[in-house]
Amino acid sequence: MALRLFGRGGAPEPAAPAPVVERKSSATGRVVALASGSGRVAWSPRDTASLTRAGFTNNPVGFRTVKLIAEAAAAVPLVCQDADRRYEVHPVLDLLRRPNLGQGRAELFEALYGQLLLTGNGYLEAVGENDGGLPDELHVLRADRMALVPGEDGWPVAFEYQVGGRKTRFDMTGSPDPICHIKAFHPQDDHYGLSPMQAAGVAVDVHNSASAWSKALLDNAARPSGAMVYKGADGQGVMSPEQFERLQSEIEMHHQGARNAGRPMLLEGGLDWKPMGFSPSDMEFHQTKDAAAREIALAFGVPPMLLGIPGDLTYANYAEANRAFYRLTVLPLATRVSAAVAWWLSEHLGAEVDLKPDLDQIPALSDERDQHWRRVAAADFLTPAEKRAALGLPPLAPDLLPTAEG
């Protein structure tokens, strides 16, 4: 049994001896293990904490993009079925309905999708084991605290979860696995996934810098308002240190910032005010910020129209953009994650089950669903069994098949 990090109180029970499982490995596994260092922790290549802070916590476009995808994918209904039938009631569905004491299904999957989008890696921990073999609880672990330990064949032999100075080691050599690791595709890393936030890192920096620039303008009367030119009695333009400090102090106290916007200025002899306006580069800076916002949305696969970013005419209307968002971003992510979770839970259950999004219950795809159902229903050359297969439905149970009398 996995160590209880967040589960119910009480000391953990001693783990039962894990059965010996034969693992087949790739011919390149030993080369991967040699490159990464067998038995040593393979660290993530980027500082995910600072990347998350810059692109999610301190960036409204990144925050809304990740939340939009994670909440939409977590709200997608899931169906549980095997090769014979679809289940309305199943132990896997019961576990996902309330995976732990503090989270429901939507909260658990939102956290899992959020970790996957921000770091490229998602980790689920199985805590305890009930009579049916399924875990008592499921918990999402923070990816920035998890480290993978590769073995001699390149496959992970353990995961190390570190909080402060404490480490918890999860053994991955037995069966079933205590950790489900879901990772995004990374062409240059054998153990960790590539986050969309990493691909959008430059755009995030540009957008954050543009926001800081706009904030500095607001702090200085929202525009480069002008300059003071000093001309002394002798025609020299040099002020004494005392005069300069006094003038600077009066400007900061009485004429700078939003509170003093529009306040008249009293100039003494020798001072002349030269107003300034926006330069062409200043006027184009806002367009640069919008372009960076579109690049962030592009990296995550969210139509800019859904984020309120102006200047995007790719889609004819909001409904079309919303359908493209579900088809191209939400459903591929939800399908891949639910399939990985189903395979992992099947290992615990001892019987193979499948979890997949229920397309019939997604409002954004209702028009496409109706058209598809009408086309299949009108296909007279298909048998009822073939129509069910075309709609992604399992075969009917023998006791539910129509009889000759019916």
From TrEMBL:
Origin superkingdom: Bacteria
Pfam family, one: Phage_portal
UniProt-listed InterPro entries: Phage/GTA_portal, Portal_HK97
Stretch list, region Disordered: 1-22
Protein name in the entry: Phage portal protein
Species: Paracoccus suum
